[in-house]
Specification:
Layout (H helix, E strand, L loop, with lengths): L1 H14 L2 H8 L3 H15 L4 E4 L2 E4 L1 H27 L5 E7 L4 H15 L3 E7 L2 H9 L5 E5 L7 E8 L2 E5 L13 H4 L4 E4 L4 H13 L7 E3 L2 H9 L4 E5 L4 H5 L4 E4 L3 H4 L2 E7 L6 H15 L3
Parallel strand pairs: 3-4, 3-5, 8-9, 8-10
Antiparallel strand pairs: 1-2, 5-12, 6-12, 7-10, 7-11
Length: 298
């Protein structure tokens, strides 16, 4: 079928290797290589540069890849719409999310949705903010969840949830009973901060620059679990949203003090999709479900 050839081309483009793509597609490297060569002959252009370290898309290859993704997305949308028309209620939704919101926002939303649509399957990959944005732009996922989405002409924010950052610490910390804190006050404390792969960190650094406050974290980590553990065990203070520490707050293991700094108060989660893409029926229905949840009072 046509989409089989397109899928094979896309896999080589994504992996940058005929052997790796062949292993994932369960075909022989020689068969896949012949198929790519025939495709290039049919199109009259070279789609890949064959280098010692792998396959690299040419300018023509990049153009072709964009069209391949549009075609494959169209095929998936068509199948989903045909299923909906026949009331088969089958489909698949692919999600990308930053850490901190997948377990307490997306996971319950998926469970609720599947109560009504048990034959809709999901894949959820937790990754860095930049990877979420790139994955949605590249058509690798239907819906993405990021903290404070930056302006991007390729993406559209469908839902924004106000989620301010908080100063998070153990109940016995000297500042635990403060009504509020500023970044300037926190600069004098031992801090654990998310690393620069997190959208939260970008906001913290921007506020630090505006406030002319120099932060020297005692710990930087690419894991919110590590940051929570640092604060919970008395290591110092971290900056997280309430959604990221909901269970620890309920158990009395952590306390959260509001921040005075404008940008940190205005933070939030954005549910985003590719601006020019019409989502498959299943993904569109789940997106509407997320919007309804987001509009409910806390």
């Amino acid at each position: 079928m046509l989409n089989t050839s397109l899928l094979r081309f896309q896999e080589v483009a994504l992996t940058g290797s005929i052997r790796a793509a062949a292993d994932r597609l369960f075909v022989t490297p020689s068969a896949l290589s012949r198929e790519l060569h025939k495709l290039e002959q049919d199109l009259g252009v070279e789609l890949f540069e064959r280098r010692a370290r792998g396959m690299v898309l040419t300018a023509a290859g990049k153009i072709y890849l964009n069209h391949v993704r549009d075609v494959l997305n169209g095929i998936e949308r068509m199948r989903s719409e045909l299923d909906a028309l026949q009331n088969l209620l089958r489909g698949h939704v692919s999600l990308l999310s930053v850490e901190g919101y997948a377990s307490d926002f997306l996971a319950p939303a998926i469970a609720q949705f599947q109560d009504n649509y048990p034959n809709i399957s999901f894949s959820l990959h937790v990754t860095a903010a930049s990877a979420v944005v790139a994955g949605i732009v590249n058509g690798e996922a239907d819906v993405g969840l990021v903290f404070s989405l930056q302006p991007n002409e390729d993406l559209r924010s469908v839902l924004h949830l106000h989620v301010p950052l908080l100063a998070v610490m153990a109940p016995g910390h000297p500042l635990a009973r403060r009504k509020s804190l500023s970044l300037a006050q926190l600069a004098q404390q031992r801090l654990a901060l998310p690393d620069t792969s997190f959208g939260v960190r970008r906001l913290i650094d921007l506020q630090s620059h505006i406030s002319k406050v120099h932060l020297t974290p005692a710990l930087e980590a690419n894991s919110l679990a590590v940051l929570r553990g640092f604060a919970r065990n008395g290591g110092g203070i971290t900056l997280l949203s309430q959604m990221s520490i909901r269970h620890e707050l309920a158990a009395g293991q952590l306390v959260a003090v509001p921040l005075d700094d404008t940008l940190l108060v205005q933070g939030g989660i954005d549910v985003c999709v590719l601006a020019r893409r019409k989502l498959p029926v299943a993904a569109s229905a789940f997106l509407e479900h997320l919007v309804r949840i987001g509009q409910l009072p806390n």
